[in-house]
Fold this protein.
Amino acid sequence: MKEAIALEFYKTRRRRIWVIVAAMIFVQMLWSMWGVGRMDAHDLAEGWMFFLYKLPLLNSIMMPVIAAVVASRLCDIEHKGQTLKLLNTVMPAGRLFAAKFICGALYLLAAVLLQIAVMVVTGCAAGFEGNPPLGKLLLYLLFTMAATLTILLLQQVLSLLFANQMISLSVGLVGGLAGLFTMFFPQGLERLLLWGYYGVLMLVGMDWDAGTRIMDLHYTPVDWAGFFMLAVLFCALYMIGRTLFVRKEM
Amino acid sequence: MFFRTLRAERMKLRHSPVWLAFLILPVIPAVMGTFNYLQNIDILQDQWYSMWTQHTLFTCYFFLPATIGVYCSYLCRLEHTNHNWNAVMTAPVPVSAVYLAKLTAASVMVLLTQIWIGVLFVLSGKIFGMSAPVPPELAEWLLYGAVGGIVICALQLCISLVIRSFAVPVGIALIGGVAGLAAVAKGCGVWFPYSLLSLGMRANHPGGPLQCGTGQFFLNSLFYLAVCIAFAVLWLKKRDVVAG
């Protein structure tokens, strides 16, 4: 398995997948920092919560597309080079599926870790009240990765099953749009959509006072039921996707 | 010659499901935007104008540029695969016609999407009993939006010509869309090609005149179109193709 993962990185060594991931994270960070620059004392007191509220929103817009791009970059090389037939003769299809997924997951893990690092550095530099909430940041890492990896898995299945990459990327875009909109709806609806889980697993809620025009943020209880549902969805998707890929005529 | 190239482009796209994305994408903001509008009807009191922002804001900045990116990537991928550039470049057709045919195909799709967005907007308002008449500016919003969309098509086609990957230009389009939001917020949206779509559609300011002035909007759109066409023609003329 180690060899298979190393081969995936070897195959993509000059494809600069990290560039597009880094560029998108950079844009996200610029956007967040722009918000930090205009903070007053009330906002600085809620600074850490501001990040934990804003970033899932940004993630729900951008992460589905980042996941779609990464999955497509990893899978499209096999379609273009018509190498699936050859690969099938030297390694089991299931292992190739797992290796591609782990390779993509590592890129996205790096992206989320980078997000957290920038969050901590920016927060300390801007003078947010209190120390970085490590427990909450760890939960953010867990939940963001859970939602992102499930989306990456779906994208990988689509990118492997259909040589036409337009299908997988369109699903990524439409899903991202639907996920973003469900954030403004009651929670029940969010749970029905895979892309809505950035919202379901959010750690911070917002109270908007229309009279004073003041936004108050507060920590919300962790939705473990939502996380469990996502985990079940991930397992089901992995088994179905892997089976479909293994049984596909190469 | 151009029309024959256009016909060839149409033949290449026949039976391809590319139009599906453009059909489905506007339906989501239409349904959810209307729902969101109805939920917040106490704050959003400008009827049609408030609903327009709900329908178009997110689509213009994040999703329509990226969908145009997908379509342009697809148009170029047809040539990038199966050694097709060899066939295209040896055909007795000027390279400008090849690029312009692709641009026309993408522009037609943008125009149809704009019409579809308009139809969904009017339908949503009528279904939920909007009492005021449909805003007379609707056609103008859609037409100006189409102009902005065509500029993005021209730019994305250039990017997809240079970058042989399918997914990377889509990522660039998404980054462009997000950066477009920042450009509009800073007041220099008219100078940034990805912002022209949302500016033209008045996504965040439907009530008044165009924020940047009509003349400036069209001038800049024309400028970016000309630059993209010139770049694509030069690129195709001067660079040796990579066929694979």
The mean pLDDT of chain A is 86. Strands of chain A lie at 204-209, 214-219. The radius of gyration of chain A is 19 Å.
